[in-house]
Amino acid sequence: MNKTEIEILEEMSMRDMRFGIPWTNFERNLSLVKKVPVNLFVTSSYDIIIDVSIIVPDKVVEVTFADQTKEKAVCREPDVFSLEQAIAICISKKVMGGSSKYNKAVKAGMKVYENKLKKEADEKEEKRRKAAKRIKRKIEKGHRLLKLADEETKRLQAEREEMIEIQKETYVRAMKEINNEGERQ
Known about the structure:
This protein has helices at 5-18, 26-35, 83-96, 99-184, and strands at residues 49-56, 60-65, 70-74. The protein is mainly alpha-helical and 185 residues long. The longest helix is centred in the last third of the chain and has 86 residues, at 99-184.
């Protein structure tokens, strides 16, 4: 059984009062009610559906509503048939204003979800790229340090060789002087 607009407005005002919202704008509430199909406001939730028919077993369900409109839900592969989900889809189609609007809303929702996944993947890839860049910089820094250490080792080796040459030259001179003094005596 459908409610009248006045009954709906009274219900809205009672709800608003329960939540401490003053009900002062009758025209606003009336405009809200006129935007929503009155047949959606029924006395109990089970009054909205008057018939459920399984057109094709485990595939197609048709739901007839109180205003004699019908909505269908089709189970496609690889989905698993569920009468409860089929009825819920039919109610959603009814509330949305038909299959076309329902399908557009579902596609929009899927696009939002896909964009979210893509954004998460992009963020993950960006983190991976930054980590790889940090590692590459550390490796390059390590190579530079190794090169500097190698150059320092070569420099120290050259200094050592130079010191050995100086000591060698000093010993050779000292030996010559000792030999020269020994021959003079």
